[in-house]
Amino acid sequence: MKRLDWDGKKGEGFDFDEWKYWEYLEQTKQQFEEEELIALITKEHALAVPDQFDIAEDSGGQIWVVYRANDGDIWLASPNLELNDWVFHERILYVPSGSTNPTITFDEEDRHLIACEFLPAGAEQKEIWLYQPPYSGDGIKKIADGEHPLLARNFHNELFLFYQTPEGEIYYRRSGDNFVSDTLFIDAVEGDLPVGFRIPLFPVNPPYHMKYQHALFYGDNIEPPRYSLTEKGDVFTVGLTFKVLHRGTPLEGAIVDFAGRQKVTDVDGEAIFLSLPYGITLSYSFSHSLLGQGAKGFFELSETFKGQHLIRSFTFDKPDTNEVLLPIADIDLFWQGTEYITETVADTPLTPVANVGIEWELMLKPIYVLVYSNWEICETGDIAYNTPNDSWVSLWNLTNFTVSGTTVTMTGPSSNLPRNIINESIGVFNDGEILAKCKSTSTSGNQFRLFLRSGGEVGNENGYYADLLSGTHFQVRKYVNGANTTFQQIDYNWNANTSYWIRFKVKENQIKAKVWLDGESEPDWMIEVLDDEFTEGFAGIGAWNGTGTKVFEDILISYPETEKVYEFITNAEVKIAGQVQQTNQEGLAPFYELQANETYEFEISHPDYAEVTTGKLTIPEGDDLILPVKIYEFPFDGQIVEQPISPIADVDIEWIQIHYEDRSLKDRANVLASVNSILWVEVES
Question: Which residue, among 584, 547, 558, has the nearest Cα to 470 in the 3D structure?
Fold first, then answer.
């Protein structure tokens, strides 16, 4: 179980609008406080507006409220959807001397836990008590002397109880040891109260890859709260598209039951499931209003699928006995796959293992050939958020630096030269921005620089950058073949050993930059200029002046995602290994039982192409492969990337380069893919 590990990042005057990805009820709670929920509580107990209640949400999205009535009783309640009546309403705690400040959360098994303050009769010091399963006996117990309890559940489903001690310090206890051990929350000062706990999420490749962070808000309940953050962690999920076929045709209206959810296939026979776990095997079943019950089976979401979206084809019905040679044992088969080819299945009949009690599957997954005439790189309209933590290299002059997570520290050399550290894993892009928190031990010269559209080499450096200068200025400039030009310089006083945020953005010919002190609210753009010198390049961090140690933290680079879009060819005839297939509306032709690392001859023909494209294709290893193969107007006009090779006497063979890739099909007119490797194809003349 991963524990909270506070890294000391903190601030004041937190801008709540910046945190748009809370998985919490902040907006809902505010609405409840002002409207229906208060009406419900006051109606039930004829109370004035209550100021002691808390709200939590169970795994089913049901709202639960714990509140203190004016007689000191603690009530647990849940409203209906219209928020005009309770569907559950029960007094759960009663202490004659009274109880205050209730707080609630739910554990991993969806059971509620409640903590309150109690003041024993005749005592002056309040106590923190916990009400947890089994809600009697040891389930109701004193935790500590203190006030202002706050229950929270972290991202890993461990529960925390924060509270203020009689000495005015904030401590917390964990469910991992049944709330026995107390730990000092070191960021808080005497008199601070725990006032809120949130888990903001940050998109990397949503919904398949997100980063999360734990945030504890605390303060004196008068001024805006301060906050402290843990390091960011990664969370991955899997997406899966069921493509359901009936007699080889996409089946609309099929009901797919999977992972406790139910989806109906669209006109393309597809049902999409998002935010699935990985490292687990789940059952599925199909049904249809006209066809009745269909196939059922199991699908393994292995750990290798995390952060990906998969597309799998399934037949709605089990194959007939005259189509596929059945196993010799009489067991219930769960069929999963795509098209079943009679002769290929019958050639290699499947037989169950000795232990016939084991359920097993017959699966035939095709390898697709994508026939295309051309391709181009296009933007998808989505934004990729990348918090890089590897592949940092010096683009120009040598720079001494170290990398730790999303922090890069520059330590020299001491000479003054253009220095730019780029992240190769992101690569070249057009429009985008870079954000970083910067701190240096010196204010001499140009200490911090954020680069966009940078490139070139030593002596011929190119690109745009924003930088802080000499403790007194902020500016935006550009390098053109090593020569500097300043667009705009503004007064800005900054200090050594102090953290400042810089955000730098380029979109088309617009260049914008801003800087602000860490802990302050982010300002509007401070510099805005126009220039069209460069259209693409690397994002990077760097400096000119070599003195001082420079630290760049929480680096975030965002840029439009791009895709390789093929101009595919429909109704092309493809022949491989004795199989003849026609490309569909997406330019795809399926082939079965092609063996990895084997080389096959192929032919591609089409009525609009006078020549037949022929060659040899080596099948790479891997699942769900799509092999793009170009059809040529004249089969010999492919790009020659090496000198012609003639491995066989009297046969003229040219080698051309094409690409193959794993690919997830998307519901759009163009076929999209990303290059994973290089495949060599022989083209005979």
Answer: 547
Alpha-carbon distance values, 89 to 78, 94, 214, 215 (Å):
7, 15, 32, 31
Q: Quick one: 247 and 157 in the same domain?
A: no
- Does residue 329 have a pLDDT over 80? no
Tens-place pLDDT, residues 349-395: 222 222 222 222 333 467 888 898 887 777 666 665 666 666 788 88
pLDDT at 630: 86
Q: Is residue 34 over pLDDT 80?
A: no
pLDDT in tens, 632-644: 876 543 332 222 2
**Distance between CA atoms of 576 and 621, rounded to whole angstroms?**
17
Q: Count of domains in the chain?
A: 4
Instruction: Pick the closest to residue 454 from 487, 432, 469, 435 (CA basis).
Output: 432
Distance between terminal CA atoms of the chain?
63
- Read off the amino acid at residue 245: L
Buried b (16+ CB within 10 A) or exposed e, 615-628: bebebbeeeebbbb
Q: Name, in order, each residue with C-beta under 8 angstroms of 598's C-beta and a sequence gap of 6 or more.
A: 618, 619
Q: What is the dihedral of CA 158, 163, 165, 171, to 10 degrees?
A: 30
| Strand intervals (E) in 28-85 | 53-57, 63-68, 74-79
Q: What is the pLDDT of residue 73?
A: 83
Measured CA to CA, the distance from residue 430 to residue 424 in angstroms comes to: 15
- Domain, as residue range, for 145: 6-200
Whether 157 and 97 share a structural domain: yes
Same domain, 513 and 615: no
Tokens of 47: 């109370």
